[in-house]
TrEMBL record:
Protein name (Swiss-Prot/TrEMBL): GIY-YIG domain-containing protein
Native organism: Methanosarcina thermophila
Domain GIY-YIG: from-to ranges: 1-91
Length: 93
């Protein structure tokens, strides 16, 4: 079942993504370099993130799933570098 999820990192920043299979083990494709620079070596040694399903639909099309992902990215402002790790769509101040 297609879902939109929100990942919350220990620093409070978030990442919004989609998963077309609702896999419990999928945590998105956020840019590793962006995330890694926000944490020290010691912080990276014990690291907990939270994954929340914020939308799901048994009948959505890929187009609707894509639209919903963008809508949630904009709603939560996870494309704002101060708030999250999404880089698309580009954040407009």
């Amino acid at each position: 079942m297609p879902v939109i999820y929100k990942i919350t990192y220990p620093n409070g920043k978030i990442y919004i993504g989609q998963d077309r299979t609702d896999s419990i083990n999928y945590f998105g494709s956020a840019n590793n370099d962006l995330i890694e620079k926000d944490f020290t070596k010691d912080q990276k040694r014990d690291f907990t993130i939270r994954k929340e399903i914020i939308w799901e639909s048994e009948t959505s099309s890929i187009e609707e799933l894509n639209r919903m992902e963008i809508m949630f990215i904009e709603k939560f402002q996870s494309n704002n570098p101060d708030i999250g790790y999404n880089r698309r769509p580009k954040f407009k101040k």
